[in-house]
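This protein record is not my work; I was only asked to verify it. The record follows directly below this note.
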Amino acid sequence: MTLSPLVCCALAYPDRLEKVFASLAETDWSQWLDSSARTPGQGRYSIMVTQPRRRIWQHQGQLWVADGNQPAQLSTSSLWQVLRESLANLPATQLPQGEDLPFTGGVLGYLAYDFALAEQGLAMSATATWPEAAFGVYDTAFMVDH
């Protein structure tokens, strides 16, 4: 297996992360994991991602998958199967010596409460506007080491 080298670069520490994310916020599927805690051993990194290589969402029990900017396709696989396959298709990353980063590419997203209802065979709201699950597969990230 060929490892894809990770590119790290040092930038000036941003004074206000919300301003950094504001430039990404209007782009669909942008996410910000804000960890501004200053407790030792916790909250060291904040992570921002945008423009996933793959989008996966489940709405009203139907699973949809879209690669890049391609139109979404209805999938007959389970959410878990699609997530496993998506992770398996990400290139392996080689960290620079001495680096210990919490995210080098992978899946970020959410499971809503309605997802658990469906998993338990209980009826979901027929008027739900948000997907019960949504994940992006990201191979790049902007990380801030607090």
User: Anything to note?
Assistant: The chain has a mean pLDDT of 85. The chain has three helices and ten strands. The two ends are 33 Å apart (CA to CA). The helical segments are 17-25, 79-88, 113-119.
